[in-house]
Amino acid sequence: MAVVFVEHRFVYLAHRYTGSNATTDALEAIGGRRSVGHHDGVSDLKAQGLITEDWLEGATVCTTVRNPFDALVTWWTRHDRGRSFRDFIFCLATLPEEVIGGSTEIVRGGRLYWMHLQDSNAVLRFERLSADLDAVLSRVGLPAVQLPHRNPTAGREGDYRGYYDPTTRALVEELFAVELASLDYTF
């Protein structure tokens, strides 16, 4: 999903496990236009005729990120409960990226957020999504929004840290070292 505000030169690019459904719904409620695809990027929006290269000059393009440790717990809880969390992390470390957890293209090159960061000039953090989104909306001249609570992860228990042991923590720190550092996330 992506939401475009042509007159405000603003695009929100949705990313998995980051509150994207709630964000998209809230942005549509204040007049944003949703793209056709589920996780459309800038090239998809151009192909759909929603934006042009010239329009992008000076536009605000944002996406959301989430602590990879936290996002992996959500991914496992929603899609891979057939094996233990520990086994899931070990598979993440050893299997080809295309088949991890039965999902394609979730992880690429040791990154969860490879889809939209390269096209974004504003990054929202899941951990403070409402405040970050309102700040960006204010900057582009749009009103603040109320984010609905959508798609809570059923079966998830407590803080993500409780799912990790020292070995799985070290594996994730190694696998996502570049992304953890570049996004300033830690365990």
Summarize the model shown.
The chain has 187 residues and is an alpha/beta fold. Helices cover 37% and strands 11% of the residues.
Write the layout of secondary structure elements.
Blueprint (H helix, E strand, L loop, with lengths): L1 E4 L4 E4 L6 H10 L3 E2 L7 H6 L5 H4 L3 E6 L2 H12 L5 H10 L27 E4 L3 H11 L26 H10 L1 H6 L5
Parallel strand pairs: 2-4, 4-5
Antiparallel strand pairs: 1-2, 1-3
Can you give a write-up of this model?
- This protein has 187 residues and is an alpha/beta fold.
- The chain folds into 2 domains: 1-66 and 113-149, no CATH class; 67-111 and 158-187, no CATH class.
- 37% of the residues lie in helices and 11% in strands.
- The chain contains 8 helices and 5 strands.
- The chain has helices at 20-29, 42-47, 53-56, 68-79, 85-94, 129-139, 166-175, 177-182, and strands at 2-5, 10-13, 33-34, 60-65, 122-125.
- It has a 5-stranded mixed β-sheet with strand order 3-1-2-4-5, with helices on one face.
- α5 runs parallel beside α7.
- The longest helix is centred in the middle third of the chain and has 12 residues, at 68-79.
- The mean pLDDT is 88.
